[in-house]
Design brief:
Length: 454
């Protein structure tokens, strides 16, 4: 049979290309096998947050409803759990005791053993010298210079009293405490880094006034540690923010001044430092009906003139702001004084808003615990380096009968899955990830996690 030259060329070409296809196929297959195994090897070295996302149910019997305090109803509005919350806040009730367990069950870093590195929300938490940690309404700073975490908060280690029967229960200003840690579990007392003022009654920090929710950030430009806080008088009518500054994370901090941001009243507040170094002040304003957000000046010692009103008519306070994968998130509480209420998560593409409300982030426990933010109020959300999308939600379980014996509720918070509610702008199509705070009676940071990931 006669085969044309052109036909042979064509067949050779086809053979060549099928050999090439085969080789490329082999290369592709080898690449997939390699990727599969290397990803498994890598992931076996990475700590995983999966354990933290276990849904733990709680069963406990709530007491039968008892007489309602009409004043409390007036203050908080009627609420399915109002009576139970009243009972929980009543220091003489058994319900109170079960959520404020005695010091015998304290978290104690001096003991270690099986409980080493275990967080127990609601238990007394001792520092490395065996004293109960006093850092309420607090926040945490990771300091790259000393490779340590610093926890700042209200020291309330004094008697609780009321100025008048209608007034909020209070403790005189003692100052801002600071604790340091390398593992987020065992905390060393670094002392009071901003003390209250004993004699000068005109001073913002005079013991008869109010200093709440101190937060510290580091300014890379000036090398200073800058503290912002809520400054008020005993009746909460001053409604200002205060600023203090230090060259060291452990103070002493020099108090600079207080003012009403943009001329508005400012109560619960927080500050947030973004990845680009811009910092922002968030404050509850217009008698707690809305939040305002404003960028700080480059030295973090003041606010700029820019300001946005957000979550208008939502009555939110206790803001805790954080960022995941380029999206900004915030947890807030409703305004009900020391009494717990349901938290809400919010999200935004820009810090300045608009902010959209996603819903109640609490998962597990039971309905009562979810409707009371596990009997606590937000104060800060701490990113866990090396675990993208995983955070520690920090909250206070206030004990208005004896504020110095309030407790800390720290729980894992993760971002992922679809938000179950998107109430403001998404027209029913949630475009955000869900923010979840998982209830655990006892939990630990994932195996292998350490601050070396910072
Ligand atoms: C809460 C606020 C606390 C404290 C308390 C006083 O609403 O979040 O920081 O100010 O009121 O009653």
């Amino acid at each position: 049979m006669k085969v044309s030259k052109g036909g042979t060329k064509m067949r050779n070409k086809q053979r060549k290309s099928s050999v090439l296809n085969f080789v490329w196929g082999l290369v592709g297959f080898a690449l997939i096998v390699w990727l599969f195994f290397t990803s498994r090897i890598n992931s076996s070295h990475q700590p995983s947050a999966k354990e933290l996302e276990k849904v733990e149910e709680e069963e406990f019997r709530l007491p039968p409803p008892h007489k309602v305090n009409p004043r409390a109803v007036k203050r908080r509005g009627s609420h399915k759990y109002s009576k139970v919350i009243d009972e929980y806040l009543d220091a003489s009730s058994a319900l109170h005791d079960s959520f404020f367990p005695s010091e015998t069950s304290a978290i104690n870093p001096q003991k270690g053993g099986n409980d080493s590195m275990s967080f127990y929300p609601g238990r007394v938490w001792l520092d490395t010298s065996g004293n109960a940690i006093q850092a309420y309404g607090g926040g945490i700073l990771y300091d790259h210079k000393t490779s340590k975490y610093y926890w700042y908060g209200e020291n309330r280690d004094g008697p609780t009293y009321q100025v008048h029967p209608e007034g909020a229960r209070r403790v005189d200003i003692i100052g801002v405490s600071c604790y340091s840690s390398e593992d987020l579990w065992s905390w060393t007392n670094e002392g009071i880094v901003l003390p209250g003022e004993r004699t000068d009654i005109t001073h913002d920090l005079h013991e008869s006034k109010v200093l709440e929710r101190p937060k510290v950030i580091y300014n890379d430009g000036t090398g200073q540690y800058v503290m912002w806080m809520h400054i008020d008088d005993a009746n909460y009518t001053r409604a200002s923010v205060g600023v203090a500054v230090s060259d060291s994370p452990t103070g002493p901090f020099s108090y600079l001044y207080s003012f009403r941001p943009h001329g508005f009243d400012s109560r619960d507040m927080t500050i947030f430092k973004d990845d680009d170094g811009t910092a922002y002040l968030f404050y509850a304003s217009r008698v707690n009906t809305e939040l305002h957000v404003s960028p700080l000046t480059n030295d973090y010692l003041n606010i700029t003139s820019a300001m946005r009103r957000i979550l208008i008519r939502r009555f939110r306070e206790a803001p805790a702001v954080f960022k995941a994968k380029g999206t900004y998130y915030m947890i807030t509480s409703r305004c009900s004084g020391w009494a717990p209420n349901p938290a809400l998560a919010h999200a935004a593409h820009s810090v300045m808003g608009p902010w959209e409300t996603l819903g109640n982030p609490c998962v597990g426990g039971n309905e009562f615990l979810r409707m009371t933010t596990f009997l606590s109020q937000s104060t800060f959300v701490l990113p866990l380096p090396g675990l993208p999308g995983t955070f520690i939600f920090m909250a206070d379980r206030w004990n208005p009968a004896d504020l110095r014996d309030s407790r800390y509720v720290w729980l894992p918070l993760t971002i992922g899955g679809l938000a179950d509610e998107a109430q403001d702008y998404s027209f029913g199509f949630p475009s955000w990830s869900r923010v979840s705070i998982y209830w655990h009676r006892k939990w630990r940071l994932p195996e292998g996690w350490s601050r070396r990931y910072t």
